[in-house]
Design brief:
The chain is an alpha+beta fold. The protein contains one helix and three strands; from the N terminus they run E-E-E-H. It has a three-stranded antiparallel β-sheet, covered by helices on one side.
Length: 99
């Protein structure tokens, strides 16, 4: 995942009980795999992607810009899985034009 001043989320301890679940997070104080980083220790435990239940639906919250042109291809699965899961629910998309 490419991180460039993207928001990092911090979930409260009772988040899972409220239907909010981390999907992608920084699991160490040195997550860098390649390149250069300064202050990466501040990211330790920070959450990048969140899955939350909202009413009868789902909300996917992304910190990094997953559709940015320089984003690694591996991060597109977050976008496409979100679209796939939304379509799988069988709920038709509605818009002002279709009413």
């Amino acid at each position: 995942m490419f991180y460039d001043n993207s928001p990092v989320f911090e979930l409260k301890p009772d988040a899972v009980l409220k239907g909010v679940r981390p999907v992608a997070w920084f699991d160490s104080p040195t997550p860098l795999r390649s390149g250069w980083a300064y202050g990466q220790g501040y990211l330790d435990g920070g959450v990048q992607v969140v899955d939350a239940s909202v009413g009868a639906g789902k909300l996917y919250l992304f910190g990094p810009e997953i559709t940015f042109r320089a984003q690694p291809h591996g991060t597109f699965k977050f976008l496409f899985n979100g679209i796939y899961l939304a379509a799988r629910k069988g709920t038709p998309a509605t818009s002002a034009a279709s009413r």
